[in-house]
Amino acid sequence: MGLLDGKVALITGGARGMGEAHVRLFLEEGARVVFGDVLEEEGKALAEETGATYVRHDVASQEEWGRAVGTAEELYGRLDILINNAGILKFRRIADMSLEDFDQVIGVNLKGTWLGIKSVIEPMKAAGRGSIVNISSIEGFVGAEGLSAYSASKFGVRGITKSAARELARFKIRVNSVHPGAINTSMALDPDMMNEVDADAFVKSMVMKRFAKPVEVSHVVAFLASNRASYCTGSEFTVDGGLTTGAGY
Fold this sequence. Notes:
With 249 residues, the chain is of the alpha/beta class. It contains 8 helices and 7 strands; from the N terminus they run E-H-E-H-E-H-E-H-E-H-E-H-H-H-E.
């Protein structure tokens, strides 16, 4: 038996990186998966390979949220799980960052998470219960130079998670956040950021001195989506190899 047998999951930002790992693991664990992304070529290829259902989905658009949720309901008659995974990162110091770039990061990472929660409340109420997992970041705990918009959005995801957990517990809908650290994805290895980071100092600050594979985050996400996490809500789970334990970070 799989951890997620019989569950219907909607995963955002699922075409590559951590989102792709979530899609693959959820399928392995028995879930029926609908995933969205704005990367249409990658999304269609992953759907063809895995059998998951791809929908084009800009998470900053309420209309496109309606289409993504509607697709899951039309195909499977219910929705049990939402993984708010879609996110973007722009490395710019405050003095150099445009308002447009700031708004885009907040729009995808924070507004998109809020819209996702809002969009699945009624389907999850109809299903009798649900699990929402919001992907934040260790930057939701600590600020970092050049990541003011990203950090602001990820701090905000923590607040939305806790408020939603309180509001939705009466409907048996659980809401938790996951906070990845150094994960081996194209976004985390953004060239603009890597050019500015002292790589040696960063590795020295790690307790486990390596980047994680995306699936190492997915295993925690799948647990929170499953019935095994039935008493977890409003909680924050770091997957950072000890990076935020304090020393040097």
